[in-house]
Amino acid sequence: MRFAVYSTDGRAGLAVAAADGVFHGLSEGAPGYPGSLDSLIKTGADLATIGAALLESAPVVDLKAVTLAPPLARPGKILCVGLNYAAHARETGREPPTYPTIFVRFPTTLIGDGAALVCPRVSEQLDYEAELVAVIGTGGRHIAKADALSHVAGYSAFNDGSVRDYQAKSTQWTMGKNFDATGAFGPVFVTADELPPGGAGLRIQSRLNGVTVQDSTTDDMIFDIATLIVFLSEVMSLEPGDIIVSGTPSGVGIARTPPLFLRPGDVSEIEIEGIGILCNPVVAEA
């Protein structure tokens, strides 16, 4: 199933797509509103049952007439992976890693489809990065690879906006990856059964002002989703509602000659096969 999280008239809403692609949904306060996707995933709710109930009784929602929100507003952990596509590692001049490079984001960076990516006033080096997101549905520690994908509730897309000069200020990437409104997330959440296991073999692209700047498949990942879950769960307890932002393919702006960074007035699009298009305008920080 495909779920969209939105707001209208100041009220949060949840919608699900029918077979014809039309979304049906309810907002807070309406009879039958099931709650936020955050809460449903964190409590282990049966998303198939909830989706079926929305399709049966909820009115049609025009997603162009509402404000789309990130599928999860407050993930418990936002775990991001650097240098996880072989071609991207090569374009940075590095050897492919033998252990995943992990950094974290915080919820204050998240925006939904259609919201503005913000170029910070202290930098002119905001870069785009198309990424596949895996949403943890069942928690655990020391998860075996054979079981790893059973812990994934579903998938979404992400634009890991990176402020490159701040990323390079130290060996740790936290500052360059956590400017407000630089992490676009959406446009929808797709349950795991709708996609190939682990999101394998999906075409992943980004476009800047309609021009394709990244074009690859998730098969170029060095560490696939199951392997990432194994490594992460060796260290920490994964919990329902955590998300894994799994890395970007080659074609990022910093690796180009001359570098290509986002500018106010630009439009950045991320498209992942089977998920959809995450589209965000770019503005200057007020």
From TrEMBL:
GO molecular function: isomerase activity; metal ion binding
Gene3D superfamilies: Fumarylacetoacetase-like, C-terminal domain (3.90.850.10)
Record's keyword terms, sorted: Metal-binding
Example of a GO biological process term: carboxylic acid metabolic process
Pfam family for this entry, one: FAA_hydrolase
InterPro entries: FAH, Fumarylacetoacetase-like_C, Fumarylacetoacetase_C_sf
Entry annotated with the keyword Isomerase: no
Domain Fumarylacetoacetase-like C-terminal: 77-283
Keyword match Nuclease: no
Family, similarity comment: Belongs to the FAH family.
Protein name: 2-keto-4-pentenoate hydratase/2-oxohepta-3-ene-1,7-dioic acid hydratase (Catechol pathway)
